[in-house]
Amino acid sequence: MFEARLLKSSxxxxxxxxxxxxxxxxxxxxxxxxxxxxxxxxxHVALVSLLLRAxxxxxxxxDRNVTMGMNLGSMTKILKCAGDKDTVTMKAQDxxxxxxxxFESPNQEKVSDxxxxxxxxxxxxxGIPETEYSCTIRMPSAEFARMCRDLSQFGESIxxxxxxxxxxxxxxxxxxxxxxxxxxxxxIDKEDEAVIIEMDEPVTLTFACQYLNYFTKATSLSPQVxxxxxxxxxxxxxxxxxxxxxxxxxxxxxxxx
Amino acid sequence: SLTQTKLKSxxxxx
Lengths: 257, 14
Prior knowledge:
The complex is a heterodimer. By secondary structure, chain A is mainly beta. Chain A is 14% helix and 47% strand. In chain A, the strands form three sheets. Chain A has a nine-stranded antiparallel sheet. Chain A has a five-stranded antiparallel sheet with strand order 5-1-7-8-9, covered by helices on one side. In chain A, α1 (9-19) packs antiparallel against α2 (72-79). The model of chain A has no long low-confidence stretch (mean pLDDT 96). By secondary structure, chain B is mostly beta strands. Chain B has no helices and two strands. Chain B has strands spanning 2-4, 12-13. The termini of chain B are far apart. Chains A and B meet through β10 and β20 of A and β1 and β2 of B. β10 (126-127) of chain A pairs antiparallel with β2 of chain B.
C-alpha cells in the first residue's frame, strides 16, 4: 500500500508545471524515503531529477517500493481539478495498475477522487556521479527566469561565464548581442534576494536557451535557484522546494565541433 | 560552430 498526503495540492501542481514541458511521461519511484523521479527529455539533452522526501508529506506510507509510470498530460488534467487549497492524497495498492488522487477541500465539504491508469515505462536511467563543481551561483529564481527570457530574444544559446568578478550571461544572434553581468551581493540582508557566487576555477560554458527556459517553469517552487558548473560537464540547475525536497535539471553543454 | 552534446556522453546508463 502506498499513500502520500500533501496539505497543499499547489506543491504537486507546481512540480508538474515544472516538468511537463520537458517530459511527456515519467516514472515515480516511491519507497520509505519518499518519491523520486528521474527522466530525460526526448532528445536526451536534459534530465529532470525530483525528490519529495517522506517527511515533507502530511502523511506518508509506503509498505513496499512502488513504481508508477505516469502520463504527465493525464496527470496535469487531473491536478487541474484540485483547488489550490485542497489537500491531495495519492494512493496505490501494491502492484496496482492504477493510482488514485483524492482532493479534499479545506472544510472537507467536497471530496473528489480521480483514478488514473499507470503505464509500464521502460525508460533509461543514468548514473550521475557526485561532482565537486568549480562554480556555484545562487540567485533569486525570478531574476534567473527574467534573464533567460530576455536573452532568448536574441539568440538560441546562452554563454554563462563565471569568474571572480562575477557571472556573465551572454548571447548573440541576427539582431545583435546582449550581456547581463551579475556581481555578488555586497551585504546580504535577505538571503532570498542575494546573489552568491562561489568559484574555485573560472568556467565558461554554452547552453541552449530553450532548455533553460523550460527549467524556469520551476520558479514558483523556490525563491532561489542554484547553478553549478564545471568545465565540460552538464550544468545543474537546482530549485530547493521548501520543507520537502528539490528539483534538479541537468543540461548538456554545447561544444565547439 | 557549436554542437549540442547529449547527456550520455557524460553520464553512464544505470
